[in-house]
């Protein structure tokens, strides 16, 4: 299972990378805006800075919503670095763009997936990844995790190569359930990754080990 970090914050990306468990990064226009990044040149430079930190995939989302615009923008994004994956919204022109990028050998991540039907379309159009949003479904009282399991099952039935990238992951239980149902990738904030470290028995066990060592050493 791959771990991606869902942020455009360079210090969080560096921290996750330094932990040694990071496989990639996802961003979206809201996350870029949160870091105050705007304007073509600054956006490109920021993506390059992210690519320079990590070893693997960095999803960069297009703003255009028409086929020609998405193709133009996606090609520009893909030129920034080999690690770039062009993120395309699940809309009609987006489907066409997925197919186009597949034929050009450019990797894509189809975002804003909220149903198995959308995931099936994205896989048929040749998306490299699909991003179903767990937390946002949970927010409106639908079971986001059920969607992940459904997509994993459907893709398995037909051997689709599209990877299931579970997104909108809000806490460690989301992440662990994704691992149970076989999502290929999870993307989440840094705090979700670091929360996996925590266990009170680890803390108390370590405190005891250190205290016993100090006692034996006469400290
Ligand atoms: C994924 O690519 C999205 O950027 C992200 O996971 C959305 O998460 P949110 O619902 O917490 O904003």
From TrEMBL:
The gene is tal. Belongs to the transaldolase family. Type 3B subfamily. Its EC number is 2.2.1.2. Keywords: Cytoplasm, Pentose shunt, Schiff base, Transferase. InterPro entries: Aldolase_TIM, TAL/FSA, Transaldolase_3B, Transaldolase_3B/F6P_aldolase, Transaldolase_AS, TSA/FSA_arc/bac. This is Probable transaldolase. Coiled coil: none annotated. PANTHER family: FRUCTOSE-6-PHOSPHATE ALDOLASE 1-RELATED, TRANSALDOLASE.
